[in-house]
Structure formats: C-alpha cells, structure tokens
Amino acid sequence: MERRFARRTPLPAFVPSAAGSIMPSGVLLTQHAEVFLLENATLERVMRRIEETVELLGAYPLVGRAYDPSYPAACTPFSCRFLQVSDTPFTLCYLFDDEFGVVTVFDIEWSAGDPRCRFA
Questions:
Q1: Distance from CA of residue 25 to its chain's centroid?
Q2: Which run of H or E residues covers position 43?
Q3: Which candidate, 111, 90, 94, places its Cα nearest to that of 103?
Q4: What one-character-per-residue DSSP string does 50-93 give?
Q5: Are 89 and 15 in contact (CB under 8 A)?
Q6: If DSSP codes are grouped into helix, strand and coil, which group holds residue 12?
Q7: For residue 86, is it left (φ>0), alpha (ψ between -120 and 50) or beta?
Q8: Distance separating alpha carbons of residues 81 and 59, to the nearest angstrom
C-alpha cells in the first residue's frame, strides 16, 4: 500500500502576509506564528481547527486561560493567555490589547515539540 501525504494547502487566513497585518476578525498572527503553522500544521483538518479557534479568539478574546507557569524558566516577560486547539497537539499563546480590541497570537506550542524552545 502506498502512503499518501496530506496536501499542504493552507487556508486563506494563514497565507503568509506582511507581519503586523490584522486579519478581519481582529486577530493578529506574528510572522513567527504564521511560519510555524505553514511548516508544522500540514493536515487540512488541523488547519481548519486552528482557523476556528482563531475566529473564536476574535469573538471572545478572554476565553483562554491566563498563562501562569509553575517554574521561572517558563515565564514570559509579559502577561499572556493560552488556548488549546481542540483535537490537535497545538496551543495558541496570545496577548489581548483591551484598548484596541486586538488579539495577537505570538506563539504556537506543539505538544510534541522541544519544551526548551518555548517562546524562542
């Protein structure tokens, strides 16, 4: 039996754009997050789940939990939130700017990734 690979066709929301551009839902993906998705989220089903989660963040930016790690090495220099993407190994780490109403996804964690590279 021949192994078939998933097509690497990203959904329109994740086509590389100029870093700093705001998506229609009020969610900004940093260039780091966009590159990570294009390189690691190869299944169309996973990309669809990520897009749904990003849309959810646009509508309900405080739906994620506050990031409060139990050890100092995992701390970020700013307060942020995280939201697990259901049925995938990915977690979106993001900031919410109350003043402008914009969510910025700055990192995407992959549960199979190296934890020493968190927020690199």
A1: 14
A2: none
A3: 94
A4: HHHHHHHHHH-TT-SEEP--SSGGG--SS--EEEE-TTSSEEEE
A5: no
A6: helix
A7: beta
A8: 15
